[in-house]
Amino acid sequence: MKPKKIAIWAGIIVIVVLLYIWLKPPTYTPLLPYTPHVRGPANATVTVTEFSDFQCPVCQRAFPEIEQARQDYEFKFIYEQFPLLEIHPRALQVAEASECAADQGKFWEFHDAVFTNLQLADSDLINYASAIGLDVPMFTTCLRSGVMKDRVLAQEQEGIRKGVTATPTFFINGKKHAGVLTAEELGRLVGKKIN
């Protein structure tokens, strides 16, 4: 083979290897094992579990109602991911981003930032990560790696197992309630007012 052809082939091989390295998703090993996203007293007699989707407009309307109820009533609140992939194209990635935030111990801060601001572009997710004090390069690597997809889908499967078909869906001590519950409705169901 002529030196010119060898140089061309070597150049092509180098370009292919560089493209592979550049396009390959980064690897990320989670810092923490999955734990449920829980707010409120661990010893509360009432547990409210919400299956939710960050892109769901009805879930966005439910957020302030839940927050008001949390201020007025005593209950343990658990958030479970349930991205409606067929109608909310950004829901899975935002859910994965929230799990990347959870891996740095800031799930609730990220959750609140998303539901407060309602902007879901990649740049918005990175801005939320920065605003709540996450290690942004670590967050970005986690998100690009796709490693949190299984955590999100496991929560979704749990919802399917429990009969969830829409968001938001609440379970109050195991009893299913679909759709938005106002703070007052949640209060009536929870029953224990904070003094």
If you had to describe this structure to a student in words, what would you say it looks like?
This protein is of the alpha+beta class and 195 residues long. The protein has a single domain (37-190), classed as Glutaredoxin, CATH 3.40.30. Helix content is 52%, strand content 12%. Strands 1-3-2-4-5 form a five-stranded mixed sheet. A hairpin with a 2-residue loop joins strand 4 (169-172) and strand 5 (175-178). Helix 2 (57-72) packs across helix 8, helix 3 (91-103) packs antiparallel against helix 4 and helix 3 crosses helix 6 (136-145). The chain is elongated and about 85 Å long. The mean pLDDT is 90.
> How does the helix and strand content classify structurally?
alpha+beta
Query: Can you say what the CATH homologous superfamily is?
Result: Glutaredoxin
The helix/strand series, from N terminus to C terminus, equals: HEEHEHHHHHEEH
E-strand count: 5
Return the CATH architecture.
Answer: 3-Layer(aba) Sandwich
